[in-house]
Amino acid sequence: MKRVRKVLAVCSFVVALLGASSTAVAQDASTRPPSSPDVTPWEAHMGYRGTFVESPGFNPFSTNDYLPQFTLGASRALFPTGRFTLAAGLSWDYGGTDATARGASTGLTVDRFTVPLTLRYALWRWLHVFVTIAPGVTYASAHVDEASAPASLVKTSWMPSGDASAGARWAFADTHVGPYPIVFWLTAEGGYAWTAPMQLSMSPDLPSSDPRQTATTDLGSLAMNGGFGRLGVSVSF
Fold first, then answer.
1. Residue-wise pLDDT tens digits, 147-193
2. DSSP-derived secondary structure for 79-144
3. If you average pLDDT over residues 124-133, what whole number do you get?
4. Which CATH code fits 32-236?
5. What is the C-alpha separation between 217 and 231, in angstroms, rounded?
6. For the chain, percent helix, then strand, then coil, each to nearest 5?
7. For the whole model, what pTM was predicted?
C-alpha cells in the first residue's frame, strides 16, 4: 500500500511539474513583444532604391549616373536564436531612366529580381540591425530613338546580379487585428550592387518579316554596378 502511495505521489508531482512548465511556456509566449520574429515571422515591404551606376555605358541613358527604382518584396524569419534571426525572401526592384544622346532620345528600364538572405540582430526590441546578401537576376531593356533608323534601336538582356548591404530597422508602431499582432517598421540600408555586363548591340525594332536590311549599332558595354541606398516601410505579421 505504501508503494502505491509513493507511486501516486511521484506521479502527482510529475503532473504538477509539467503543468507548471506548460503554464510558464504559455506565459512566456504571451509576454514576448510583437516585434519578436517568432511572434510575427512574415514581412511585406516596399521602398525606394537609388543606385549610382559607375559604367560609362550608362551615360547615354542618364545625365547624372543615377538609377531610381521602386521596391516590393516579402520575407519570412527562419531559425530565430536569441537576438539573432535569419530571414529569407523575394524582392523586385523596378525603375528606369531616360536622356538624350547626340540628339536622339534614349531610355533604359530595369527589373531586378533577388532572393535576399538577411541576418538580423536585435539591439533592442524596437531596433534591429542587419546584413543582407541577395543573389538574383536582372532584366534590362534599352532603346534609342534615332531619326535615321527605320525604327527605334532596342536591346534587351537577362543578366546575373546580386547585392550586398547592411542597415537598420525601427519598429515605430504595432497593433492587433483580432488576436493577430502586426508591427510597422522603417528601414534604411546601403550597400553595393553588381550586375554582369550587357553588350549594347542595338538593332531596329522591326518584325522578322520586314525585308529591309538593317545593321546593328554598338554602344559598348553597360555594367550596372555601384553603390546603392534604400529607404522603405514594412509590416510584419
1. 777 778 899 999 999 999 999 999 999 999 998 999 999 999 999 99
2. EEETTEEEEEEEEEEEEEEEEEETTEEEEEEEEEEE--EEEEEEEETTEEEEEEEEEEEEEEEEEE
3. 96
4. 2.40.160.20
5. 38
6. 15, 60, 20
7. 0.82
